[in-house]
From TrEMBL:
Pfam families: ABC_tran. InterPro entries: AAA+_ATPase (IPR003593), ABC_transporter-like_ATP-bd (IPR003439), ABC_Transporter_VariousFunc (IPR051782), P-loop_NTPase (IPR027417). SMART domains: AAA (SM00382). The lineage of its organism: Bacteria, Bacillati, Actinomycetota, Actinomycetes, Mycobacteriales. It comes from the Bacteria. Keywords: ATP-binding, Nucleotide-binding, Transport. This is ABC transporter ATP-binding protein. GO terms for molecular function: ATP binding.
Length: 314
């Protein structure tokens, strides 16, 4: 079952520089459909946001791409090969999970030494710098770390891995706002110097929206948006004004959400492009503002099944 929205996708790419891909991937756990007919490409040298509500299928998708779960049908490839039990592929992949566990007796230094052995592109100096940044005590046992410190350790491993494909699955549990900002800053600075492909799943969409270059939204196991963040920023707008004028403007795009109070209506609309004619709306006293990425994701994933949606008339 879909959200009632047409799937929103970028035009097909001619770029063959795809580091990971899914084609018609389905993953079931017993009678739970975690992923249904999922297809997307992850291209080299970009930061992707994998977004969606709780239980949407984000962790499952990342687990399939990192060989930690076997999909039920379809095809998943990383660097052109199946990732499952494929050391050739996995040495270039780092997957940092929110629920990452480490052997209890290891201390922080041991974990980093193990990571250095396992990850081909590991940078020890960078790892040391990140330990200092996050004030992680090298000699402390992992089981004695606070929840936030454990997250900081995961983030440190993900960044210092410099893996050509690095996936962070909601790595922030317990990280305070200062530590999260540190993570974003270090990620951006290091990514600029050492370009690689990063996939980030998060519920803190506003915080990361400036980081993301491409967004994949999963809703109940299906991909409902696969588009560049710029395209989403340009086309997703919040329109407010007299109902007739808002509805006329909205009819040229896809209405993601609409609410009225008296004669005024507010609608979140995905237009056909930045040049959508807004003159009549403005003349009628209406306003058009860019929708935040968070608003866009919320409106894209929370429609009831039978919600009316209008197709773009491009
Ligand atoms: N090992 C499992 N056994 C049974 N069901 C599972 C298992 N792992 C995931 N699921 C189910 O698959 C669906 C997708 O779960 P998944 O963890 O991929 O979602 P998610 O988008 O990462 O959610 P969240 O944002 O809450 O972490 C959910 O319905 C979940 O209950």
């Amino acid at each position: 079952m879909t959200s009632g929205l047409t799937k929103i996708t970028a035009p097909p790419t001619t770029d063959t520089d795809v580091v990971a891909a899914m084609r018609g991937v389905t993953k079931t756990y017993g009678d739970v459909d975690a992923l249904t007919d999922v297809s997307f490409d992850i291209e080299r040298g970009r930061i992707y946001g994998l977004l969606g509500r709780n239980g949407a299928g984000k962790t499952t998708a990342m687990s399939v791409l990192t060989g930690q779960a076997i999909h039920t049908s379809g095809e998943a490839t990383v660097f052109g090969e199946s990732p499952f039990e494929n050391a050739n592929v996995l040495r270039d992949v780092c997957f940092v999970k929110e629920s990452q566990t480490y052997p209890d007796d290891l201390c922080v230094g041991h974990v980093l030494t193990a990571a250095a052995h396992l990850l081909e592109h590991w940078d020890t100096d960078f790892a040391d710098q990140l330990l200092d940044d996050f004030q992680l005590p090298r000699r402390r046992r992992v089981k004695k770390l606070s929840r936030g410190m454990r997250s900081a350790l995961g983030v440190t491993i993900g960044l210092a891995s410099r893996a050509p494909l690095t996936l962070f699955d909601e790595p922030y549990l317990g990280l305070d706002a200062v530590a999260r900002q540190l993570f974003y800053d270090r990620l951006l600075a290091d990514y600029a110097e050492h370009p690689r492909t990063v996939v980030l799943s998060t519920h803190l969409i506003d915080e990361v929206s400036n980081l993301l270059e491409h967004v994949i939204v999963v809703d109940r196991g299906r991909v409902v948006v696969d588009d560049s963040a710029d395209a989403i920023r340009q086309r997703a707008v919040v329109v407010t004004g007299p109902t007739a004028a808002v509805d006329e403007f909205s009819s040229k795009g896809t209405v993601l959400h609409r609410e009225s109070l008296g004669s005024t209506t507010r609608a979140t609309v995905r237009t056909t492009g930045p040049d959508a004619d807004r003159s009549r709306l403005l003349e009628a006293g209406g306003t058009v503002e860019p929708a935040s990425l968070q608003e866009f994701v919320i409106r894209t994933t929370s429609l009831p099944h039978d919600a009316p949606s209008q197709e773009p008339q491009s």
